[in-house]
Amino acid sequence: MPSHLNSLRQPHSIGSADTPNPAINFPKDHEFNRQLQRGSQGCVDKWTHIPSNTVIAVKIIQCTKRTPDEVVIHQELPPHESIIGYLGYYEDQPIRKRGSLILEYCPFGDLYDFYTRAMKENNYTCSEAFMWSVYSQLISALALLHRGIDAQYPQGRDGWRPIVHQDIKFENVLVKSLGSKPDWSKIQLKLGDFGMTTYYDPANPNSRGYIGTAANWSPEITWETKRLTPASDVWAAASIIHELAHDFGPEVAFKLTKDKWFLENDEPPYPDSWPKDVKNSYWSSKAPRRVIPINLDPKESVPILSDYGIGYERCALHCRKHWPSLKYSDALNDCMMAGLKISPDERSESGKLLRQIEAEHAEFMFKNLCVEHDRAIALDRNESDTKGESL
Fold it and tell me: Residues 6 or more apart from 279 whose CB is under 8 A from it?
C-alpha cells in the first residue's frame, strides 16, 4: 500500500470530547470511550461492551412518544449490509424523555470526512472502481428502503411499506471499512442517521415538514411543499457521485440566487428572525439544478458553468480548472445521469437503477480482470525473455 495513504487506514472519530454525559445511566458492563458527534438534536457517543470487547455507537435521541419513529423503522427493517446495524434501544436513558439508540460502530467516520482527507492525499481524484463501489452500495440501501429489495428478495417484498430516508448526504454515509485496495474499491459503507426517515405516504409526503439538507433536494422539491419522495432519495444519492467526481454538486451556488433577488428587491422573502442556517437552506431550495456529465475530457470547458445572469459560479469553475474530474466511463456516467434526471418521472427508481449499476459494475470489473491478466502474462513473458538473454 502506498505510504502516503497509511494515515487514512487509522480509525477516525469526529469530535474530541472525552467526557461522558454525567447524567447517563448506561448498563455497568459498558464503558464510555468518547463523543463522536454533537448536534442540535443530541449526540452520538462511542462505548465498549467490556465482556465481549465490542465497540458500539450510542445515539441519544429525543422521545416525543414511547418509541420514536427512528427506532420503529430500525426495528422493522431487515438487516442489510449497506445500512447501519440496529442493536437495541433503551427508553428514558440517559434521562427522562431521552432514549439511547444502540447502533453498529463505524470506525472510519463518515464519507465527508473520508473524502476530505483521502482526496487531499490522492490529488482530488476518485478512481472509477471506488465510484462504482460507492454508488452500488448507496442504491442497494435505497432499494431496500423503497421496495424491500435485497439478495433474498431481488424483486422486492410483497406488501412492503416504502420508506424514504429524506436526508441522504455525505455526512450520513458512514465508513465501516476501507478494504485492502489502494484505490478504495473495497470500501464498505453504511447508510446512517435515520432521524428524518419515515414511511412514505404519496398523499402526504413529508408530513412532519422536515427541511433536511436543501442543497441535496431534487429539482421538483420546493420550499413551500417539501414533498420528499423515493425519487428525491435517488437524486440525493446520485448527487454524491456527482460531487465525488467534480468536487461540487448539481446545485448551482445559492449565493447567485440570493444576489439576484437582492438586485431586484430590498427586503428578504422571509422573516429576518430566521436563523442563518435556515436562511441558507431557503436559498439552496431556490437555486437551480444543473448536472455536469462525468465522461467529459478533463480539459473540456463546461459552458453551463459560465453565467447565470448575475455572475459566474466561481467555486465550480475553480474546481473544474484546478481539480478537473477524471474522464469516467460512459457506463458510469449513464448510471449517474439516470439518477439525476431533472424530471422525477424520468428518473430511475432505485430498484431499476440498482440492476443497471450491478450489470455495468460487473462488466467494469471483468474488463479490469482481463487487463490485469494480460499485464501479468506480458510481465511473465518479459521475465522469461530476460532470463533467456542472460543464459
Answer: 268, 270
What is the rounded distance in angstroms from the CA atom of residue 269 to the CA atom of residue 287? Answer: 14
- Per run of 10 residues, the mean pLDDT along the chain (length 391 residues) is 39 39 58 77 83 89 81 95 93 75 93 86 81 98 97 95 95 94 93 92 75 89 90 97 94 91 93 93 93 90 71 81 88 98 96 97 88 70 64 56
**CATH fold label, 13-104:** Phosphorylase Kinase; domain 1 (3.30.200)
Contact between residue 347 and residue 234 where contact means Cβ atoms under 8 Å apart = yes
> From its phi and psi, is residue 218 left (phi > 0), alpha (psi between -120 and 50) or beta?
beta
Phi/psi for 187 (5° steps) reads -60, 140
Which residues make up the CATH 1.10.510.10 domain(s) of the chain?
A: 111-368
DSSP symbol at 41: T
DSSP 72-141: HHHHHSPP-TTBPPEEEEETT-SSTTEEEEEEE--TB-BHHHHHHHHHHHTTT---HHHHHHHHHHHHHH
Q: Are strands 163-164 and 98-104 parallel, antiparallel or unpaired?
A: unpaired
Residue 50 CA, chain-centre distance (Å), reads 32
Grid cell in block for residue 136 = 452500488
Kindly state the cell numbers that stand for 95.
434521562
CATH of region 111-368: 1.10.510.10
What letters, b where the CB count within 10 A reaches 16 and e where it falls short, cover 349-372? Answer: bbbebbebbbebbeebeeeeeeee
